[in-house]
């Protein structure tokens, strides 16, 4: 995510509370209005037995709660200590749950001269196999959804009395009504398309006055925005998707929050937020930051940088509506770690995409990543580091031995450098150092990565202009780009709507239009992808191409884990081969030919016989037709040809 336009003037509404009365027991319930005299807020909302993260820290919020004496009635759960801050309205309780069985236990808060308060807290039983869950991998195709813009399955939740911003589909930057139910209703379409993972932009509450649809200004870490659905709806989405062979990847933000987060009216500590101005907690959306981030990410790796420049990058705010969190604060760091684990466990997730990865404290990022991966050893996390420099990307990947001693624990990153190179290679005229040769030579940069195959390569996302538009509304080039993403030695990700050539402006950014509504996601849409209604010839062609290639890829294990070889482009033609073995000693299984020439080309095959061996024919992945592999191969003008070579050849 990069800098977003935002201006807000609405007041904060706090939610997700536990209503308490003297000596009355309560379990976690629906969100209730904040009332310091009668309410406590406890987070996480619950925990689970048999967790690796068995040392649980509860954040308790309530009027003068720091003065309370805490006791517990539980089987095998012990209070190891309590921590207070300069704010008397917060209390942090350290619990040891190791070895405890699933149960509901009682926490009692005894304040001198005040009524005793008792709270029921759930330690739930984990889902079977939870710790062994598999994260997304090279076998998957990730489909990115902006949920407000994909499908409106429940018009009844478009507006909510607790939420400031109301739906206005005529406003490109407003809320349009897409929700979790809309995604659930679309699972058959997504499964048929060949998608195996859904990356969904943040669904947690964003109670901001404007631009709340994008989800990157969280105002409640433990509540799904009610305009999207409920916490239970989110879990049901993951479970129903799993039935169709689809996983769910959460979009997480540990760098910043929304200015209407309930913390901002009563910060837990004075150092909870980086560089606020004074007064900060003014109850409005226009709290000012002392400084904004410089976005100069190389200061974290530059051996010649000064501390001041590094701090201006990490500690500055994105925009006025996004307070920057101080992950060096140990209570906050633990809160963020537990929150991420909570959503993985509750939401039945198969991955996390971490927004603005390098902007958070880099020591914390190691702790955060290690904690999640210790809980789920086969999980996966991908970080966003928006740069075209492979060396900068490589710094953050697990296994990279950086000269400054920093050792990341992050398995994957978004491959912005290769994405940007792909666009250049297809957009410009062929030349000695332009065009397809860029792609060929750029792959030599893979030597700087600990594992380039674990990077996520994409054709676009919610922050980039649409692929089809960037390639001049050229169908052939768009298919070439998609084929490259899907057959590379990376984890592929596509953006919703690319399969039907959704468009955007190409000059500067226009997020509201880039993230336009998916046709057919609203009941009265004249065009519907789901019903195959109203698509143009080119849109139908692109949809068919995408479906064919995704479903072919799903069963092509050699694309997931095999080797890649390629040949220097000549005369506007670039050939890549995919093999089952990393060294391609088994010969090619897939030949991908990229042709930028407008006219048909006759391609001599002698140059490629080292990997084609004696193969005399192949099957066109898209058309299904048999193609002879004699002395030459005829390419029908600009486009991509994908030839599957059977093992018996």
Which keywords apply here?
649 residues, alpha/beta, Immunoglobulin-like, six-stranded antiparallel sheet, 15 helices, 27 strands, 21% helix, disordered N terminus
Task: Give me a quick take on this structure.
By secondary structure, this protein is of the alpha/beta class.
Could you characterize what this model shows?
The protein is of the alpha/beta class and 649 residues long. The chain is built from 15 helices and 27 strands. The two termini are 47 Å apart. The protein is 21% helix and 20% strand. It comes from Shewanella marisflavi. Pfam families: Alpha-amylase, Cyc-maltodext_C, Cyc-maltodext_N.
The chain-level structural class is: alpha/beta
Q: Strand count, sense and closure of the main sheet?
A: 8 strands, parallel
Could you name the ranges where pLDDT drops below 50 across 5 or more consecutive residues? 2-38, 278-287
In quaternary terms, these chains amount to single chain
Question: What percentage of the residues does DSSP assign to strands (E)?
Answer: 15-25%
Integer-rounded radius of gyration: 26 Å
Shape: globular
Strand order of the largest sheet: 17-16-15-14-11-10-19-18
Tally of alpha and pi helices: 15
Q: What number is the mean pLDDT?
A: 92
Instruction: Please bin the fraction of helical residues.
Output: 10-25%
CATH architecture of the largest domain: Alpha-Beta Barrel
The total tally of domains equals 3
CATH topology of the largest domain: TIM Barrel
Q: How many E-type strands?
A: 27
CATH homologous superfamily descriptor of the largest domain: Glycosidases
CATH class of the largest domain: Alpha Beta
Straight-line distance between termini: 47 Å
């Amino acid at each position: 995510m990069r800098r977003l336009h935002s201006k807000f003037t609405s007041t904060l509404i706090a939610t997700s509370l536990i209503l308490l009365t003297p000596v009355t027991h309560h379990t976690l319930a629906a969100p209730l209005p904040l009332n310091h005299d009668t309410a406590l807020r406890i987070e996480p909302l619950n925990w689970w037995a048999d967790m690796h993260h068995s040392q649980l820290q509860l954040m308790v919020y309530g009027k003068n709660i720091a003065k309370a004496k805490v006791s517990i009635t539980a089987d095998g759960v012990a209070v190891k200590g309590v921590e207070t801050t300069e704010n008397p309205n917060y209390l942090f309780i350290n619990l040891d749950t190791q070895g405890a069985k699933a149960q509901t236990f009682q926490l009692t808060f005894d304040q001198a001269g005040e009524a005793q308060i008792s709270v029921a807290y759930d330690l739930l039983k984990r889902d079977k196999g939870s710790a062994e869950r598999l994260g997304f991998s090279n076998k998957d195709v990730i489909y990115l959804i902006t949920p407000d813009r994909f499908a409106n399955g429940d018009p009844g939740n478009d507006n909510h009395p607790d939420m400031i911003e109301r739906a206005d589909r005529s406003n490109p930057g407003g809320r349009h009504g897409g929700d979790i139910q809309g995604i659930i209703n679309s699972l058959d379409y997504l499964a048929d398309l060949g998608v195996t993972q859904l990356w969904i932009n943040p669904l947690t509450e964003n109670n901001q006055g404007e631009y709340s649809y994008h989800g990157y200004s969280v105002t409640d870490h433990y509540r799904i925005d009610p305009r999207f659905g409920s916490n239970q709806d989110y879990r049901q989405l993951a479970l129903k998707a799993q039935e169709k062979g689809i996983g769910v990847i959460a979009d997480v933000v540990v760098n910043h929050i929304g200015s209407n987060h309930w913390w901002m009216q009563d910060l837990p500590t004075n150092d909870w937020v980086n560089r606020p101005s004074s007064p900060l907690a003014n109850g409005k959306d226009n709290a000012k930051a002392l400084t904004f981030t410089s976005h100069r990410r190389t200061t974290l790796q530059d051996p010649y940088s000064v501390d001041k420049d590094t701090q201006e990058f990490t500690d500055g705010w994105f925009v006025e509506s996004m307070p920057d969190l101080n992950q060096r604060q140990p209570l906050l760091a633990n809160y963020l770690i537990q929150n991420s684990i909570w959503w993985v466990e509750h939401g039945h997730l198969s991955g996390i995409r971490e927004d603005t990865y390098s902007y958070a404290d880099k020591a914390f990022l190691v702790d955060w990543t290690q904690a999640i991966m210790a809980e789920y050893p086969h999980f996966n996390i991908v970080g966003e580091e928006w740069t075209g420099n492979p060396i900068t990307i490589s710094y953050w990947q697990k296994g990279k031995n950086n000269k400054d001693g920093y050792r990341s624990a992050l398995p994957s990153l978004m491959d912005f450098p290769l994405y940007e190179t792909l666009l250049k290679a297809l957009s410009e005229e062929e030349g000695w150092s332009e065009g397809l040769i860029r792609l060929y030579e750029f792959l030599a940069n893979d030597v700087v990565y600990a594992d380039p195959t674990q990077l996520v390569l994409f054709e676009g996302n919610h922050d980039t202009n649409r692929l089809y538009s960037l390639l001049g509304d050229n169908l052939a080039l768009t298919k070439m780009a998609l084929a490259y993403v899907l057959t590379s030695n990376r984890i592929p990700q596509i953006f919703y709507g690319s399969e039907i050539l959704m468009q955007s402006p190409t000059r500067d950014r226009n997020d509201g239009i880039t993230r336009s509504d998916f046709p057919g996601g609203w009941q009265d849409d004249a065009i519907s992808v789901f019903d195959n209604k109203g698509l143009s010839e080119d849109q139908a062609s692109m949809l068919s191409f995408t479906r064919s290639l995704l479903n072919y890829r799903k069963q092509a294990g050699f694309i997931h884990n095999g080797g890649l070889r390629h040949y220097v482009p000549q005369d506007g033609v670039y050939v890549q081969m995919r093999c089952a073995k990393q060294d391609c000693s088994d010969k090619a299984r897939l030949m991908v030919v990229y042709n930028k020439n407008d006219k048909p080309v006759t391609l001599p095959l002698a140059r490629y016989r080292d990997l084609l061996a004696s193969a005399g024919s192949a099957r066109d992945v898209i058309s299904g037709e048999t193609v002879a592999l004699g002395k030459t191969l005829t390419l029908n003008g600009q486009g991509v040809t994908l030839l599957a070579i059977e093992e018996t050849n």
